[in-house]
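Narrative of accomplishments. A recurring question from our advisory board has been how the design workflow behaves on a single, concrete structure rather than in aggregate. To address it, we present the structure tokens for one chain from the evaluation set, followed by the sequence designed for it. No filtering or post-editing was applied between the two.
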């Protein structure tokens, strides 16, 4: 009787452990609000410095993407918020790359996939 109770207890503990493990893995891979907020803050800081230094139409495009990121965050579309913040950041960095004496490109080779705020962003495909 004790063996059967221990066996059932072991099965229940292992099942609970598996469920918790799967839930942890799924929550780690999922884009969260903190990822989106981090991405927006980075893009916002870059945009703020670019607005003071440059008068370029790309700054307005970056502001549009940043506004889109904030609205997506408000609607809890975190992946879209990160993507919009990433686009705003790319616009700002594109402006800065035009002036190499002030800003340098330390190994920024183009690639098909990039990591930004804990989320992998593919240049060609958006989920």
């Amino acid at each position: 009787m004790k063996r059967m109770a221990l066996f059932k207890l072991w099965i229940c503990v292992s099942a609970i452990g598996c469920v918790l493990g799967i839930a942890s893995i799924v929550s780690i891979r999922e884009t969260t609000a903190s990822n989106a907020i981090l991405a927006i803050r980075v893009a916002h800081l870059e945009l703020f410095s670019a607005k003071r230094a440059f008068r370029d139409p790309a700054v307005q495009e970056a502001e549009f993407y940043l506004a889109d990121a904030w609205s997506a965050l408000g609607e809890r579309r975190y992946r879209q918020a990160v993507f919009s913040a990433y686009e705003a950041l790319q616009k700002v960095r594109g402006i800065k790359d035009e002036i190499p004496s002030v800003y340098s490109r330390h190994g920024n080779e183009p690639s098909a996939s990039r990591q930004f705020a804990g989320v992998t962003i593919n240049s060609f495909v958006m989920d």
